[in-house]
Amino acid sequence: xxxxVVVIGNFDGVHTGHRWLLEQARLREPGARLVAVTFWPHPxxxxxxxxxxxxxxxxxxxxxxxxxxxxxxxxxxxxxxEVSRWSPAEFVDRVLRxxxxxxxxxxxxxxxxxxAAGTPDTLRExxxxxxxxxxxxxxxxxxxxxxxSRIRAALAAxxxxxxxxxxxxxxxxxxxxxxxxxxxxxxxxPTANLLVPESMxxxxxxxxxxxxxxxxGPDAGRHPAAISVGTNPTxxxxxxRVEANVIGRTDLQLYGVEVDVEFTAWVRGQVxxxxxxxxVVQIRADVATIREVLGI
Length: 296
Ligand SMILES: Cc1cc2nc3c(=O)[nH]c(=O)nc-3n(C[C@H](O)[C@H](O)[C@H](O)COP(=O)(O)O)c2cc1C
Ligand SMILES: Nc1ncnc2c1ncn2[C@@H]1O[C@H](COP(=O)(O)OP(=O)(O)O)[C@@H](O)[C@H]1O
Description:
alpha/beta; Rossmann fold; Elongation Factor Tu (Ef-tu), domain 3; 2 domains; 6-stranded antiparallel sheet; 5-stranded parallel sheet; 10 helices; 11 strands; 26% strand; binds flavin mononucleotide; binds adenosine-5'-diphosphate
């Protein structure tokens, strides 16, 4: 097997900064196999349980995005308490050496190993004579570097434009369509409902313009969508859901189908209406706005 160029990180969101790191790896070692080393679950959930951030990508989405960004191999280290106690040297011996790296790239400020004792300098020392180690300056999308935590904060604040700019792609929420309260079709706007796992980040409650892609089934493909994130306050709901109405259709069969919901633009916040009739009038207006936003 050819020698590798390795990038290491959590890569949650696979945002512009992560993609920049992968591009640098490709440019600096064009002949080498590009390997992304990452972790699952998120190390913070093991080291400081309960303090882990809400995730922008689940593991399968993250791997798919890393491959799209040029990774030819994705190595997922199962992060356990035992792994959290590895010294920097153990991490290098167990994870990096077997990949036969010619160069390793990490973001500036990267730390690894027990109590985050390893720095890019430690890595350089441990790999002396084996591989070059580059600590790459963090890519700046604007005044500050793109980071998963900035993106999470922007999403939570309803600032989808900033989140999407830092991601370098529309924010996307994936899941399996579940049965809801069967109310959507009564209102003339059936919605494919996705549950929001506790572990995942989701944009602030509100109405968004976007796209729904069904990965399989009779309606496979990408469809324009009016998206609602929230608890359906009009109906005193409690469970937070991502719901997408495919615009102009009432005939889709999406139950049990894996879908990707892409968020293109923020439209408005959630409102508690006094009844279904007022809500339906508003949804009609939303759909008209969303058609314009999407240019359909
Ligand atoms: C474009 C759009 C806008 C919506 N706006 C609101 C809203 O402002 N307030 C609210 O309580 N629910 C809103 N909803 C969510 C509806 O309450 C929900 O889709 C409906 O109750 C159907 O739920 P079901 O899929 O579980 O049957 C909106 C849904 C869509 C598609
Ligand atoms: N245009 C559409 N957009 C979304 N789902 C649709 C559409 N047309 C039909 N459906 C189907 O209807 C279901 C949603 O209908 P709805 O009455 O809102 O039920 P539920 O409350 O179970 O979500 C979806 O899961 C999907 O299978």
